[in-house]
Amino acid sequence: HKDIIALKDLNKDEIELLISTAENMREINSRDIKKVPTLRGKTIINLFYEASTRTRTSFEIAGKRLSADTVNITASTSSATKGETLLDTARNLEAMKPDIVVMRHAVSGAHYYLSKRLSCSIINAGDGAHEHPSQGILDMLTIKDRYGRLDGLKVAIVGDITHSRVARSDIAGLTKMGSHLYLAGPPTMLPPGVERLGNVTVCTTMKEAIQDADVVIMLRIQQERQGKTLIPNTREYSRYFGLNPENLKWAKPDAIVMHPGPINRGVELSSYVADCAKSHVLKQVENGVAVRMAMLYHVSGGAVVTE
Ligand code: CP
Predict the structure, then answer these.
(1) What is the Å distance from ligand 1's center to 307 Cα?
(2) Ligand 1 centre and the CA of 74: distance in Å?
(3) Nearest CA to ligand 1 atom 6
(4) Predicted ipTM?
(5) Could you say which of 3.40.50.720, 3.40.50.880, 3.40.50.1370, 3.40.50.2300 is the CATH number of the domain covering 7-132+285-299?
(6) Under a CB-based contact definition with an 8 Å cutoff, are residues 201 and 181 in contact?
(7) pLDDT at 193
(8) Looking at ligand 1, which atom is closest to the CA of residue 260?
(9) Ligand 1 atom closest to Cα of 126?
């Protein structure tokens, strides 16, 4: 693929290839000298129209570990603030001959729009409420690390499903890999029609979703996509859909807890759960670097890394 925009566009073999390449890339990250010449001479532009800590930093580190030249652009300090359109910005950046543009944008589908108009590769670092494919792959890698497989697992996804690009990529990826997904959230945060996807059960209570789950993925309320008035408000939300030591007991005894970050402690996740031994939040972040290395490698035309 020239671009990686959405896991819904990848088949099972392609998802497995990204996961296995990331597994191989991890070896580089554990060395004393964390750098290989694989993408030497390539230029990567990280173009972020929305805030990011994990994704932008790990794409930059991933590019540098593969010896690419990486450049970061934040929209708030770019000429986008002077009214330049996304297409003009992208065409001007392309005139500088980058090989890959990694972009985060608030508009769902912005990457498809650019993909048809630019010849360089585009990787989606999150587009509105549509997809966040690198997060989806790193979530699958983290689950596979724990269980050695993805098929047959009960995975609960709890929270603001409607506005979550992470949920959309997790659902697209995990259902292809044979996991059984159980979704729970307030009715205002459950997208209509999601139950029609194969292997997805929409639950009316959090208990139904996390009962005997192998994996519990908690989501942040995407307030930036909902306006000022939250229904339910954060207090009500936390009461019915927050994960705490008591309701975590409903999941399997050795279940793992995941969250894409940033966490709103005390809302979707109690501090105790966020920091407990079952929490794999920082393992997700660690895996994010290897997954982004794998994505940069594959859009550059790489074959499977075997050593
Ligand atoms: N999970 C995630 O996308 O985090 P950032 O918004 O910090 O990149």
Answers:
(1) 30
(2) 14
(3) 52
(4) 0.98
(5) 3.40.50.1370
(6) yes
(7) 83
(8) 1
(9) 3
Quote the DSSP letter at residue 179: P
Residue 203 alpha carbon to ligand 1 centre in Å: 26
- CA dihedral 169→60→216→105, nearest 10 degrees, is -40
Q: Nearest C-alpha to atom 1 of ligand 1 is from which residue? A: 260
For ligand 1, which residues put their CB under 6 angstroms from it? 52-55, 126, 132, 135, 260-262
Give distance in angstroms: CA of 267 to centre of ligand 1. 18
Which residues lie below 8 Å from residue 257, measured CB to CB, with a gap of 6+?
Answer: 216, 218, 243, 248, 269, 273, 276, 278, 279, 280, 281
**Which 3 state secondary structure label does DSSP give 99?**
coil
Distances (CA, A) of 188 to 216, 221, 232: 20, 11, 8
Q: In order along the chain (307 residues), what is the average pLDDT of each group of 10 residues?
A: 96 97 96 95 96 98 98 93 95 96 96 94 97 98 98 97 95 97 93 82 95 97 76 88 97 98 95 97 98 97 53
Q: One-letter amino acid identity for 10?
A: L
CB neighbours of 75 closer than 8 A, spacing ≥ 6? 47, 48, 49, 50, 81
Q: How far is the CA of 67 from the centre of ligand 1 (A)?
A: 23
Given the CA of residue 58, which atom of ligand 1 is nearest to it?
Answer: 8
pLDDT at 222: 80
Provide CATH 3.40.50.1370 ranges for the chain.
7-132+285-299, 133-281
Determine if residue 117 is labeled as part of a ligand binding site: no
Q: Write out the two tokens for 51.
A: 């805030």
Probe ligand 1: pick from 47, 48, 54, 74, max atoms within 8 Å of CB? 54
Which CATH number applies to 133-281: 3.10.450.50, 3.40.50.1370, 3.30.70.20, 1.10.530.10? 3.40.50.1370
CA dist., res. 3 & res. 224, Å (int): 27
